[in-house]
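Action item from last meeting closed. Structure (225 res):
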């Protein structure tokens, strides 16, 4: 487990550094994103959809506030068009992260995990727990990008990754965009409740997953003694 965690921490640090840089410089903020989206809607709804997808795709590199973008997309585009734009953006971000890591990730993998046995252990660990990580990755910032990169880096089959990624992003896109579509400046509570509900749901799932994994590991150790 330690070799895989080491790779995850390095990837998370890379994404966190871009987030910190953008936050400190003020280049990308929720307020600026809202202004960009409203300006795009004033020009053309299709341009707005393209901008939403582009922002979510850019999240692979510059850590965009995904939840805010999705809710704003629903508010400005409506539930259906917002869901389509959001799904396309998240899908492209995941696939691109997978493909780049599958093509070039070995250099990082070999540099961080030098022992062949440890690399094999990391791959086997992600094969066992990777699907759950991908499905619950929306629980915290940067974890979706990290999980997509790990899937490519550890050699998860593309079709399997694609199914898991779609299972993760489709409900998320539909729920957040619907919440945005029924919210307004006078009544923002649907979006607020949705954000809190999603965080609570994913964190609860992580808690039970961690507890069951810890219990299974303890039982395995006891049986080996």
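Sequence:
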């Amino acid at each position: 487990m330690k070799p895989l965690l080491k790779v995850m921490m390095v990837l998370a640090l890379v994404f966190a550094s871009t987030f910190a840089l953008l936050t400190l410089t003020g280049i990308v903020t929720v307020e600026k994103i809202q202004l960009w989206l409203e300006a795009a809607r004033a020009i053309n709804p299709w341009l707005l959809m393209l901008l939403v997808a582009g922002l979510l795709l850019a999240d692979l590199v510059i850590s965009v506030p995904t939840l805010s973008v999705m809710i704003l997309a629903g508010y400005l585009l409506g539930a259906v068009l917002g869901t389509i734009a959001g799904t396309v953006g998240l899908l492209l971000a995941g696939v691109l992260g997978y493909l780049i890591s599958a093509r070039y990730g070995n250099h990082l993998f070999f540099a961080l995990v030098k022992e062949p046995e440890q690399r094999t252990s990391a791959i086997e660990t992600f094969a066992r727990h990777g699907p759950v990580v991908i499905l619950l990755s929306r629980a915290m910032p940067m974890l979706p990008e990290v999980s997509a990169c790990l899937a490519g880096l550890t050699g998860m089959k593309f079709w399997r990754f694609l199914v898991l990624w779609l299972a993760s992003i489709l409900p998320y896109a539909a729920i957040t965009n619907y919440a945005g579509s029924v919210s307004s400046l006078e009544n923002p509570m649907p979006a607020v409740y949705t954000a809190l509900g999603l965080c609570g749901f994913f964190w609860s799932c992580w808690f039970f997953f961690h507890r069951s994994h810890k219990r299974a590991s303890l039982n395995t150790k006891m049986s080996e003694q």
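Note appended to the action item: The mean pLDDT is 78.
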